[in-house]
Design brief:
By secondary structure, the protein is an alpha+beta fold. It has helices at 2-16, 42-59, 107-123, 127-133; strands at 60-75, 80-91, 95-105, 140-150, 153-162, 170-177, 183-190, 198-210, 213-225, 229-245.
Length: 257
């Protein structure tokens, strides 16, 4: 059971390390913009990103969807894995309801990792907790790393460096859509090693657009374990439906144009 507890701890810390910002919807892909991004400074890009994220958050009243969570541990003394499918209902400003539709694999991991993780996500919605992890200048330093073209369109690539060693912050790169100023991709590692038991954690999260809103569609996180082996955590987000929304204010034009 001591080994089981260590596996559960690794799983919880791995999941904690992917508490990335949730800017704000893919079912039917929208037309892809092909125009190159305007020449903006990093301060202008970040200002537009923060402002547009706030506008989308205020406009998004509620949505529902489903997720598939998977956790695989391969290492000493044995391999463990688990998977759950969850229905999600979000209501603005700070309510999420989770219903586990199915589960398979290790019941220990389902109980000790996944169920605790769902409760932690609910708790993270408080205004105070959101302020500590928000993607803004209070929590991060930003550097313009270049331009890129993704399936979603032209993007600015920003390097992000956390201002403190909060394990829920991260360092790496983000891709910001040049038209909507929404995060469309993150490649990063936690600002602070989540645990003695993990040597290195990498995170990749992808967002896409539904209607006026951007939400995550996939998350892949992998940790190397000091005892040898590897833990892999994934989330696949599906079946989004916006059930309540307000018109976007989009106050003022994009800064820098």
């Amino acid at each position: 059971m001591q080994i089981d507890r260590q596996i559960a701890r690794v799983g919880l810390l791995l999941i904690a390390s992917v508490a990335l910002p949730n800017p704000a919807f893919p079912q039917t892909p929208l037309p892809v913009a092909t125009e190159p991004p305007a020449s903006l400074t990093v301060d202008q890009i970040v200002e537009n990103l923060v402002r547009r994220n706030l506008e989308r958050a205020r406009a998004l009243g509620s949505y529902k969807g489903s997720r598939i969570y998977r956790l695989e541990y391969r290492g000493f003394p044995s391999a463990r894995s688990a998977e759950i499918t969850v229905d999600v209902i979000y209501r603005s400003p700070a309510t999420k309801e989770f219903t586990i539709r199915s589960e398979k694999g290790s019941h220990f991991l389902v109980e000790k990792v996944f169920q605790r993780m769902l409760q932690s996500e609910k708790d993270a919605l408080t205004e105070e907790n959101q302020a500590h992890v928000a993607l803004n200048k209070d929590n991060y330093r930003f550097t313009l790393a270049g331009l890129d073209t993704l399936p979603t369109g032209a993007s600015y690539v920003l390097s992000v460096e956390p201002r403190n060693a909060n394990k829920l912050l991260y360092r790496g790169r983000i891709w910001v859509d040049a038209a909507d100023f929404a995060v469309v991709r993150i490649e990063a590692s936690p600002a602070k090693n989540p645990s003695f038991w993990t040597k290195e954690t990498t995170i990749e999260q992808v967002y896409a657009k539904f209607g006026n809103f951007w939400l995550p569609v996939s998350n892949r996180s992998t940790s190397a374990i000091r005892l040898g082996g590897r833990a892999t955590f994934t989330i696949d987000y599906k079946d989004y439906q916006i059930t309540a929304e307000s018109p976007l204010s989009m106050s003022g034009k994009v800064k820098g144009y």
